[in-house]
Amino acid sequence: MTTLRTEGLTRRFQGLVAVKDLSFHLDAGEILGIIGPNGAGKTTFINLVSGITMPSSGRVEYKGRDITYMPAHERARIGIARTYQLIHPLENLTVIENVMIGSVFSRGKSLKEARRSAEAICAELELDRLDRDTAKLSMLEIKKMEIARALANEPEALFLDEVMAGLNSDETKQVIGTVQRIAAERNLAVGVVEHVMGVIRELTQRVIVLEAGELIAEGPYEKVSKDPRVIEAYLGGAA
Amino acid sequence: MNRNLLRILAALVAVAAVALPAFAGAYPLQVARNVILYMALAITWDMLLRSGQISFGIAGLFGLGAYASVLGVLRAGMSPLLSIAFAGAFAGLAALLIGFLILRLRAIYFSIVTLALAEIFRIVIQNLHDFTGGPEGLVLDGVILGGSASGLYWLTLAGLAVALGASWWFEKSKFHFALTAIRNNETAAKSSGIDIFRWLLATFVITSVIQGFLGGIYGQSYGFATPDSVFDANFTLLPLAMALLGGIHSTVGPIFGAVLLGLAAEWLKLQIPYGHLVVYGVIIIIVILFIPGGLYGLIKKANRASEGRKA
Ligand SMILES: Nc1ncnc2c1ncn2[C@@H]1O[C@H](COP(=O)(O)OP(=O)(O)OP(=O)(O)O)[C@@H](O)[C@H]1O
Ligand SMILES: [Mg+2]
Q1: How far is the CA of B55 from the centre of ligand 1 (A)?
Q2: Which residue has a Cα nearest atom 16 of ligand 1?
Q3: pTM of this prediction?
Q4: Which tens digits make up the pLDDT trace of B75-122?
Q5: CA distances, B289 to each of B186, B243, B286, B292 (Å)
Q6: In a 10 Å sphere around its CB, with 0-12 CB exposed, 13-18 middle and 19+ buried, how is residue B71 labelled?
Q7: Residues in a beta bridge with A27
Q8: For residue A16, how far is its CA from the centre of ligand 1 (angstroms)?
Q9: Please, which residues bridge with residue A62 across strands?
Q10: Of the CATH numbers 3.40.50.2000, 3.40.50.300, 3.40.1280.10, 3.40.190.10, which one belongs to the domain with range A2-88+153-238?
Q11: Where do the structural domains in chain B lie, given as residue ranges?
Q12: Is the per-residue pLDDT at B1 higher than 60?
C-alpha cells in the first residue's frame, strides 16, 4: 500500500531550485534510501513532506489524501514523523519529557498515559536513565532520543535525516538494527537519508538519488550504484 | 531539600499572608499590598515568557482592566466586585483579538509591538474625553469594601491567589510541555504535533485576563483611574525586574524576586526619591549579565550540586 506520494514537487529559494519536479512514492513496510551529494535537496525534500517547508508547486499525498499545504503539526498527528539532521533536543525538558511530547500532542494522551508509552518506546530503543537533562547525553543517546520522539507520534511514515552521522561504526550497527526492528514491527514506511553508502546498502530495499534537486535514478542500491549518472553526480560533487 | 519541609513552609507562609492584617498596621499592609500586586503581575509575565515570548505590554492590559472596571461601575452600574471580573473578561477579549494579529511575531518584534500596544491603549483612552474623562481620568464615589485596609489587602491577595493557581496549573499540565517545547525549538515542537499558535494564543489570553483582573482590583482599591496612573510603565518594568531577579520560568522565582525587590524599593523610595528606578535598571543588567537563572536558579544549582555530591 502506498503511504506517501509526491507529484511534481518543487521548491524554490529565491533563484535556487532546491527540489525540482520530484515525483516519488513510499510504501508501508518499505525502507527507502534518499541519497545525493551535499546540497542535492534531501533535507528540503523531507521538509516538504513533513510540512516544515511549503512547496512552490506540486502535490503531496498521504494515504490518498492531499496534504500539500497541511501544517506540520497536523501532519505529525495523521502519522508523518521525522528526525532532524541538525539535532533538536528540547534542552529544558528531561529525556522522558522530550519523548512524551509526541504522545501528548500528536496522540492527545494524558500526561500519565504519555509517560507510560514514552517509557515503553525508550525501553525498546535501549535508552535508560530517563530523568536526565539532555545536556548530559552522548551522541548515540541523543540520536536514540530523537528517534524515540518521532516514534511517540505513532507514525505510519518516518523520515530519518542522517541519524547515523556522528556515530562510530559499532553505534551505527546498533542503530541500523534498531531502525530495521521498529520499522518491521510497526510496518512503517521509512525514508532514510545517509551519506555512508554501507548504511544505505544494508538498510534499504530501494533508493532514490537526487542531484541539484532532481531525481536522477531509482531502484535497488546495487543497481543504482552502477548507474553512470549517479557515479557522475558523486564524482562531479567531489571534484 | 526535603519536599515535605518545603510544603509545610509554604503553608505557613500562606497562613501568615492571610493573617497579616491581624498584626500589621496600615503602612505595612499598604506595602504588602503593593508587593503582592507586583508579584502577581510578575508571575503572569513569566507564564508567557515560558514560551519564549517577552511581553512589554503588562501595563497595557493592566490599565485596560482598571478602566474597564471603573467604567463598568460608573457607566454600566456594575457592582465593584462584578466590575473586577468584567475587567478580566475585557482584557481577555482584547488579548484574543490582538493575539490573532501579533502572535505570529517573534523575539524583539513581538516585544516592541506589545510595548506599542500599551501606549496605544493609553492614548486612545486619553482621547475618548466624553467616555473616559480624558487625561483627568475618572473618580468613583467610593472605594471598594469601604476602603478597609485589611479588606483591600485580602482583595489583592485574592488576585495573587488567582495568578499563583494559574501558574501552578501551567507547571503541572500540558502547558508546561507545550510552552517549553515552543521556547526550546519551534520546529521540533511542530513535528511533535504542537499547534504553536493555539498554545501561544491560549497563554496570551489567560495571562491577559489575570492582568486585567489585577487592574480591576487596583482601580477599585484606589477608586479612580487616570491614564498616567494605571498605564504607568512601572507596571511593566517592576514585574519584569522581579521575575528576572528571582528566576524566570518558574512560579517560585517571581515570588522571591517580588519580596526582595518590593521591600528594597519601598526602603529606597524613602531614602532617595526616584532612586529606586535606577536600582531596578542596575538589577536587571546585573542579573542578565551574571545570573541569568536568577536567585532561584542559583539555589536550584547549589541544591543539584549538593545532591550530586551525595550520590
Ligand atoms: N531555507 C533556505 N533558504 C535558502 N536556501 C536553502 C534553504 N534551505 C535549503 N536551501 C538550499 O537548498 C539546497 C538544498 O539544500 P538541502 O539542505 O536540502 O540539501 P541536502 O541534500 O540535505 O544537503 P546535505 O547533504 O548537505 O544535508 C542547498 O543549495 C541549500 O543551500
Ligand atoms: Mg541535509
Answers
A1: 34
A2: A41
A3: 0.93
A4: 999 999 999 999 999 999 999 999 999 999 988 999 999 999 999 999
A5: 26, 15, 5, 7
A6: buried
A7: A2
A8: 10
A9: A4, A65
A10: 3.40.50.300
A11: 22-232
A12: no
